[in-house]
From TrEMBL, chain A:
The keyword Hydrolase applies. One of its GO terms (molecular function) is ATP hydrolysis activity. Its EC number is 3.6.3.-. The keyword DNA-binding does not apply. Keywords: ATP-binding, Hydrolase, Nucleotide-binding, Transport. This is Aliphatic sulfonates import ATP-binding protein SsuB. The gene is ssuB_4. Belongs to the ABC transporter superfamily. It holds the Pfam family ABC_tran.
From TrEMBL, chain B:
It is found in: Cell membrane. The chain crosses the membrane at residues 52-83, 95-116, 122-139, 169-199, 219-246. Keywords: Cell membrane, Membrane, Transmembrane, Transmembrane helix, Transport. GO terms for biological process: cellular response to sulfur starvation; transmembrane transport. The keyword Transmembrane applies. This is Aliphatic sulfonates transport permease protein SsuC. Residues 58-242 form the ABC transmembrane type-1 domain. One of its GO terms (cellular component) is plasma membrane. The gene is ssuC_9. Belongs to the binding-protein-dependent transport system permease family. The keyword Transmembrane applies. Gene3D superfamilies: MetI-like (1.10.3720.10).
Length: 252, 250
């Protein structure tokens, strides 16, 4: 692998002391290549989301190191898309997308221009003037993706971003994400508990088992895109991953 | 249809109220000097206007009202924000707040007069004290109740300082709660206006006391209705402003 954009070594994270000590992640190593779509799967509570939070600086690890090799001119190396879109309800769609650009030195006009381009990328140009409460769940999540892309991050961190959506909308957004990553070449770190989702969008799937969370298995998926969900090879890989996950949870 | 019906009922109710009010003194059930019939009110109102007293009293009261409201609300919002954001500040002030909060605004009248004299600033002070607590608690509670997930969004996009947290998230998110407090304060401040002016600061309250000592009860009623009208006006304007500020809500 060329120099990874994210290099996580011996990462540990624990809460509390003594008896009530809760080890969420233990001695986890993970490297993500530039431009790679890496999907992390695992059951609830194995520290998948915690891993993203550590990368984002929202949680502090108790041991190990995290190195991010972003472009030197990159102001915000990483941007996050949360499970619940978390739009700011008092801002119109366009101003939500422009949120992360405030303080970047861009003028208001430039920020809006950039926000408009991002809305076009996620196919929501017509909704720029709406309030968040006027959007559907899927639209909200697209706005959240546009907001994250607007700051031109090197890495997009996505924490179960489609899990609250109905399956029809979810599949639409998975396709959309594949198109966007192909167009922008972004590195994506995507957390999900949905194996079909993982194999559809991933270049590489990493299974985290626990607790405490450790890497249990890893599969590279070199199939061309756009991928058909009924593709036999894809379903084969999904079956293997499922077997791996249930074997791991049986061991624990 | 429903609207017409309820409007008609409301008008009928008001009419019945006025008829009853008119009848009681006219039939000699109560001395008209103690309860002036409503038909005498317009004439009394015109007299007050012609004398130029009405406008002077209203303007003077309004200036106390607006100044007291701004001072009390401004201090209440500022300290409420700090107290809502900082557990340390809240703990530090907890007992002082417990000590001062139960003291009614009117209990400050002696000090208001000692500190400011029988001057407009005394009325402003009394009004501001009453408004302060309402707005302070509303603001503190609203800031405390802001969704932590939204604060995290600001952090995730690099806005990590307390000032940025305040401007980007806490203040806009707390606005609905702060506005509820302000609207309550709007009514509370009116009560304080009369109370403060009864002690002699020129304004509507003072004029009412003068009139009642001369048993000109029709004039007292003129000012009672004036205050009802002004309060209605302010409250409607505030509700309109509130609706516009919170147009982002479903």
């Amino acid at each position: 692998m060329p120099e990874p954009i994210i290099d996580i070594r011996a990462l540990s994270l624990a809460y509390g002391e003594g008896e009530s000590r809760n080890v969420v992640l233990e001695s986890l190593d993970l490297a993500v290549a530039r431009g790679e779509v890496l999907v992390i799967v695992g059951e609830s509570g194995v520290g998948k989301s915690t891993l993203l939070r550590v990368l984002m600086g929202l949680s502090r690890p108790s041991g190990g190191s995290v190195a991010v090799h972003a472009r030197p001119d990159c102001r915000t190396p990483m941007a996050m898309v949360f499970q619940d879109a978390r739009l700011l309800p008092w801002r119109r769609v366009i101003d939500n997308v422009a949120f992360g650009l405030e303080g970047s030195g861009l003028s208001r006009g430039q920020r809006r221009e950039r926000a408009r381009a991002m809305l076009a990328l996620v196919g929501l140009s017509d909704l720029a003037g709406r309030w968040p409460h006027q959007l559907s769940g899927g639209q909200r999540q697209r706005v959240a993706i546009a907001r994250a892309l607007a700051v031109e991050p090197d890495v997009l961190l996505m924490d179960e971003p489609f899990s609250a959506l109905d399956s029809f909308t979810r599949e639409g957004l998975q396709d959309e994400l594949q198109r966007i990553t192909a167009e922008t070449g972004k590195t994506v770190l995507f957390v999900t508990h949905d194996i079909d989702e993982a194999v559809t969008i991933a270049d590489r799937v990493v299974v985290i088992a626990g607790p405490p969370g450790r890497i249990a298995a890893e599969v590279r998926i070199d199939l061309p895109r756009p991928r058909l969900r009924r593709d036999a090879t894809l379903q084969d890989i999904a079956r293997q991953l499922r077997a791996e996950l249930s074997r791991r949870s049986a061991e624990l | 249809m429903q609207l017409i019906r309820s409007t008609a009922l409301a008008a009928a109710g008001l009419l019945a109220f006025l008829v009853l009010w008119e009848a009681v003194p006219r039939l000699g059930l109560v001395n008209p000097a103690f309860l002036p019939p409503p038909s005498t009110i317009p004439a009394a109102f015109l007299r007050e206007i012609e004398l130029g007293v009405w406008l002077t009293a209203v303007l003077s009261s309004l200036s106390h009202y607006v100044a007291g409201l701004c001072a009390g609300a401004g201090a209440g919002i500022a300290l409420g924000l700090v107290s809502g954001m900082s557990r340390g500040f809240e703990a530090f002030t907890a007992w002082v707040v417990r000590l001062l909060r139960p003291i009614p605004g009117l209990a400050w009248v002696p000090f208001a007069i000692i500190w400011f004299g029988v001057e407009p600033s005394a009325a402003v002070f009394i009004i501001a004290v009453g408004v302060f607590w309402i707005v302070f608690f509303a603001t503190q509670g609203a800031v405390r109740g802001v969704d932590r997930d939204l604060v995290e969004v600001a952090q995730a996009f690099g806005f990590r300082g307390p000032l940025q947290r305040l401007v980007k998230i806490l203040l806009p998110a707390a606005t609905p709660g702060i506005l509820v407090g302000l609207r309550t304060a709007l009514g509370q401040a009116w009560m304080a206006v009369v109370a403060a002016e009864i002690f002699g600061v020129p304004g509507v309250g003072q004029r009412m006391m003068q009139a009642s000592s001369l048993l000109s009860t029709d004039i007292v009623v003129v000012y009672m209705l004036t205050m009802a009208g002004l309060y209605g006006l302010f409250d409607s304007a505030f509700v309109a402003l509130q609706g516009w500020l919170l147009r982002w809500r479903a």
